[in-house]
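Before relying on records like the one below, remember that each one covers exactly one chain. Contacts with other chains, cofactors or solvent are not represented anywhere in the record.
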Amino acid sequence: MINIEQILKIAKEKDASDVHLVCTLKPMLRIARELIPVEEMDELEENDIYDIYDYFVRGNLDKDAVFKETKKLDTSFEYDDIRLRVNISYTNEVPTFTLRLIKSTLPKYEDLGVPDIVKRMTYQSQGLILVTGKTNSGKTTTLNALIDDINENQNKKILTLESPVEYKHISKKSMIVQKEVGRGRDCLCYSDGVKNSLREDCDIIVVGEIRDRETMEAAIETAESGHLVIGTLHTKSCAETLDRLINFYEVRDQAQIKYLMSTLLKLVISQRLLKGRDGKLVLIPEVMVVDNIIAGIIRKEKISVSEIEDAIQSNSEKGSIGLINSLAKLFVEDKITLEQAKAQIEEKNLEILNRTIMQLKIKKNNQY
């Protein structure tokens, strides 16, 4: 019989970020972006897989029904002092598992490499802040580090909507209410949770994922009514984030949503993670502070990606940080290689990257 708890202990000891359990393969750990098999374990057989399913579902009829109806399930799980985000799906008609290990201690905001402007923006009384990036770009960690910083330093009521709840916060200077989204949980869907927050006397609403128009509309309504809404999207750049938000809507409605975005959107941070020279993950941030220039671009009939990128790159005095600037800075600091930096941008921007690197090196030399 498979010993899932032994696998979890090994994963914790080796500081794995994820565990993959797939039939016919040994349990696999993701450590610093590399997939490593647990050599002391046998290949998983079909009966092992169903034992693992029973271990995580624990006879919960709602969870079992959701998985059988939708062929997927996201849930959280705790064993000893290990907290997991569990995703169950199918492959070849057999369940497969992806387990994300959540560290019991949340890293300090200052240690993540997230620019200080993002934290400062949480002191806004209302508006919309978006944390974006591809899967495994550290969005959840950044989001929860922001919540923790607010909790330490501001007196607010914070409502979080998550699927599932990952980090469990303890109220400090702020009051934190965490709700899990999904069938048989605290609220059925994100949009319902956001709408109901208007009756819960909240100051800040955190939306774990904005994935559809209904949730976006609820977030906008909440921000309009005098709340600060912080949400995440799966987009790879600030410009793509704007494009995604606008394209939630029909063409006839886009002029109105552009106007609302130009007034309510305060900041977008788009982040990436790269394996640095020292083997540790390095955060690459792109930050767009929505000032009058960005707001004007958003309201235009057709949004130009290059125009947005140029505005971000040239607006550093307001707190915006271009992707090229971030890459150049990290290369000059010897945290990433030049090849890594070049791989993150289009070929047409290589000359700008080289020029920015030279400017930073000259500035660095002049300081000595």
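The radius of gyration is 22 Å.
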